[in-house]
Design a protein that fits this description.
The structure is a homodimer of 189-residue chains.
Chain A: H1 3-12, H2 18-27, H3 38-50, E1 54-59, E2 67-72, H4 74-85, E3 92-94, H5 96-102, H6 109-136, H7 142-170, H8 185-188
Antiparallel strand pairs in A: 1-2
Helix pairs in contact in A: 1-4, 2-3, 6-7
The structure holds a DNA duplex (28 and 28 nucleotides).
DNA sequence: TAGGCCATGTAACCGGTTACATGATTAG
DNA sequence: CTAATCATGTAACCGGTTACATGGCCTA
């Protein structure tokens, strides 16, 4: 799932500019498909146009900079169709939060609690994001996908609510420098 | 969450080699924290050793190539502690499967069914992976994290089982080339 | 009047992957 | 006899990000 594919996917839904595509990828539903910033989107659009998959025209605005509006053409639609038919990669889930949780015994209770709170906020924010994105996408399956996302986020939230105490109790039980935790001699005396 | 951090994290659990660390990251529990291959792990270990965060010694074996065994030292443990305390990134979930699902109306029913089957296999495989990885990690919170993962995978699986029919019915209802689906004139005659 | 939004674009960088080189041993 | 596993490493590449340049309008 590279920037090229996502540009075609978004333009399949209607004409758009580099600026709008970036917004879409940064905080729309498409944020769950790829990462992309200006530095990758603008060159990708230029290249796609040069290859003949996109058409472009300048739209003049007063008071605002001109917009370079791209449209997908038949060649582009065919290419997009092939990309969807070809092999797609596996889903990836990378979680710094779970790394922190894994090493909870070496962290203070405060640190773990703060990390959990941050994660809860993050998940709730993701849920909001799904709601707004769902309303915008003119695709039949968009409700199905949004529901998939809500289901995933909510089940994570529930797990955290029900089990956070257990993790907080593990926090601070070991020290990084003494991996095999030998009872302190001071305490034994 | 870069390769450096993951190397320190793994070495915190015991001495290891570049080869073993890669296995760990490729198909262990750590696969959910970062991506890393030989080309990034070996240079990272060299650099960490040069910076004084790791110690290394050669372990000779007969019949097999020598192993370069790394151990984390006090400097390394301190650095790892700081990394865990510092700001960590947000979780990321990138799903080519959901992109495909989003555009289901443009794909054939066979394609969608195949993608769903592949996704189910993928999720079941992830569940197996969690079980094996859980048994290996000598950390108090490892059960908590494994259970988090199982919960996440299972809820995705359940959603797919219960709703796959709905997605399969959306498949093939539009053509990429005719975005506004006007009823065919042939059919009307 | 400072900062944010609109809007496009580029150059330097960076963190990774891919593919290769090397070579012995073991399992199918 | 082939393929995989063990084991280390490098060079070329690549797909992205970061930071910057530019500049007018609008809001606090």
């Amino acid at each position: 799932m590279n920037v090229r594919t996502i540009c075609l996917a978004i333009l399949q839904l209607g004409d758009s500019t580099g600026y709008e595509i970036r917004k879409c990828v940064a905080d729309g539903l498409f944020s769950h498909f790829v990462d992309a910033s200006y530095g990758s989107i603008y060159p990708a659009l230029n290249k796609l146009e040069a290859e003949g998959l996109l058409d472009a025209h300048i739209e003049e605005q007063d008071g605002k900079p001109n917009r370079r509006v791209y449209s997908i053409n038949d060649t582009g639609r065919a290419a997009f169709g092939e990309m969807l038919s070809g092999p797609i990669g596996d889903d990836t889930f990378k979680s710094p939060f779970l790394l922190l949780a894994t090493y909870a015994q070496y962290l203070s209770r405060e640190q773990i609690s703060a990390a959990i709170d941050a994660q809860v906020k993050f998940l709730i924010n993701e849920l909001d994001l799904i709601d707004t994105a769902e309303a915008e996408l003119p695709l039949a399956a968009c409700n199905w996908v949004a529901e998939f996302g809500r289901n995933a986020m909510q089940s994570q939230l529930e797990y955290i609510y029900e089990n956070r105490a257990a993790l907080e109790e593990i926090a601070g039980t070991s020290s990084l420098t003494n991996k095999p935790q030998i009872p302190a001699i001071d305490a034994a005396e």
